[in-house]
Specification:
This is Protease Do-like 14. InterPro entries: Peptidase_S1_PA (IPR009003), Peptidase_S1C (IPR001940). Belongs to the peptidase S1C family. By secondary structure, the chain is mainly beta. The protein has two domains: about 70 residues, Beta Barrel (Thrombin, subunit H), CATH 2.40.10; about 100 residues, Trypsin-like serine proteases (Thrombin, subunit H), CATH 2.40.10.10. It has two helices and 14 strands, in the order ββββαββββββββββα. The longest helix is centred in the C-terminal third of the chain and has 9 residues. The N and C termini lie far apart (about 30 Å).
Length: about 190
């Protein structure tokens, strides 16, 4: 997008409010510059809530290795916050739901099952990165990144980070137990 002669980069993704004060979990690749040799922030982050309210977000911290970022928005009133669950309780075959805004289609919900609870990054050809993901068959697309993976009790059990480009039904999330450890170290 061009604005006043300058090229302005725009990312589209999802996130989850995790406390009433406006702390939001999302993906680092949405709010940081992965192309720079010195990773930096993309600047202002525009946040649109499900109820239509808009905020300017501030990136509090991010971790490129896990692709997790934490944002903060300021609201005059407490915000509805999601409940965090535990990913260690998941088993293959458990039903889960992915929430997000794929292709700018807000409030999209897809359902699926957990296919694998410890898919290694090396299995996916991600050289140099050592991570384990939750693998599901939930339909996720561009715009779902950063959105929550939820169990049937409504608890966040993962952060959706990617899908395989040329395959359907292969979606990957960072387990919430790992995300919580990362956020605690910020």
């Amino acid at each position: 997008m061009q604005e006043n002669g300058w090229l302005r980069e725009k990312s589209l993704g999802s996130g989850t409010i995790i406390d009433p004060d406006g702390t939001i979990l999302t993906c680092a690749h949405l709010v940081t510059d992965f192309q720079s040799t010195k990773p930096g922030l993309k600047g202002k982050v525009s946040v649109s809530l499900q109820d239509g309210r808009e905020f300017e977000g501030v990136v509090l911290n991010f971790d490129h290795h896990s692709d997790i970022a934490v944002l903060k928005i300021k609201s005059k009133t407490p915000l509805p916050a999601a409940r965090l669950g535990s990913s260690c309780k998941l088993r293959p075959g458990d039903w889960v739901v992915a929430l997000g805004c794929p292709l700018s289609l807000q409030n999209t919900v897809t359902a699926g099952i957990v296919s694998c609870v410890d898919r290694k990054s090396s299995d996916l050809g991600l050289g140099g990165i050592r991570r384990e993901y939750l693998q599901t068959d939930c339909a996720i697309n561009i715009g779902n990144s950063g959105g929550p993976l939820v169990n049937l009790d409504g608890e966040i059990i993962g952060v959706n980070v990617m899908k395989l480009r040329d395959a359907d039904g292969l979606s990957f999330s960072v387990p919430i137990d790992y995300v919580v450890k990362i956020v605690e170290h910020f």
